[in-house]
Amino acid sequence: MSVIGLIPSRYGSTRLPAKALLEIDGLPLIVHTYKRAKLAKSLDDVIVCADDEKIVQAVEKHGGKAVLTASHHLTGTDRIAEVAASLNATFYIDIQGDEPLISPYNIDKVVEFHKERSEFDIILPTLAIDLPHSPHIVKVVHDNKSRVMYLSRAAIPFSFSSNNQKFLKHLSIISFTPESLQNFARLPQGEIESIEGVELLRALENGMSIGTLSLEGDSFSVDVPDDYERAKEKILYDQFRQQY
Predict the structure, then answer these.
(1) Which residues of 172-184 are buried (b: 16+ CB within 10 A; e: fewer)?
(2) Which of 223, 180, 225, 222 has the alpha carbon at shortest distance from 203?
(3) Alpha-carbon distance 118 to 116, whole Å?
């Protein structure tokens, strides 16, 4: 049983231009994500899937593995599907390239959960959050059997009849079976996906099953300048930084 980590990375970020190459504690952001994924014991290989040669060169300069993909992909999941089509693994782990504080332990927990719950096409972990109103954070609602019901940039569940104090955010470590990844990539962009700007809504719109588990930590996506400043500060005290 082999497990491969695939890290999609796009150069032309609109909210934070060229963020993959922004330096954090002496290394490009994408290199932090790669190095931390390599610390996960469950991954047999890790590959950055980039849309620009500049990202490929940055990763390779620091001893990593990267491939150049087509530039037309709408989402990171589409991008990693291109690379996975030429590989052979039991699970593909989509590790978002803009999370330089991602925990290797959480990667391992996602892999373990998918091995135990193989009835799910996709596994999407969550972290508890207190402030759900940022549209940059995707929130998750699931049922009593750990199946994801909906994803939204809005604060869900909405506090209407009672005051909801429990919100879960989408953590960017996503496990796919080979079949589910290729099926996802073949599907056209969904109507709700295009409205919310949340790519995994395409899977829900087409009846694919997404399981979830709750994890702990404080990893976050670097989407805007404030996130970048926060990442530069937190990396200095991070427990994994000294390992690479």
Answers:
(1) bbbbbbbebbebb
(2) 180
(3) 6
Q: What is the dihedral of CA 178, 70, 19, 204, to 10 degrees?
A: -40
Would you place residue 130 in the very low, low, confident or very high pLDDT band (cuts 50, 70, 90)? confident
Q: Structure pTM? A: 0.94
CA 188, distance to chain mean position in Å, is 20
Q: What is the pLDDT of residues 135-176, one digit of tens each?
A: 989 999 999 999 999 999 999 999 888 887 789 999 989 999
Peptide bond into 157 cis (omega under 30): yes
Q: Sign (positive/negative) of CA torsion 14, 181, 32, 124?
A: positive
Question: How far is the C-alpha of 229 from the C-alpha of 117, rounded, in Å?
Answer: 38
Per the structure block, which two tokens stand in for 202?
């395409």
Task: Give yes or no for a contact between 121 and 200, defined as CB atoms under 8 angstroms apart.
Answer: no
Distances in whole angstroms, Cα of residue 23 to Cα of each of 26, 27, 35, 37, 231: 6, 5, 14, 18, 10
Dihedral of CA atoms 146, 148, 153, 157 in degrees, nearest 10, equals -60
Question: Pick from 73, 81, 74: which is nearest to 181 by CA?
Answer: 81
Name the CA radius of gyration of the chain, rounded.
Answer: 17
Fold of 3-243: Spore Coat Polysaccharide Biosynthesis Protein SpsA; Chain A (3.90.550)
E-strand spans in the chain? Answer: 3-9, 23-24, 27-28, 45-50, 66-68, 91-95, 122-123, 126-129, 139-142, 148-152, 167-170, 173-176, 210-211, 214-215
189 φ/ψ angles, rounded to the nearest 5 degrees = -60, 135
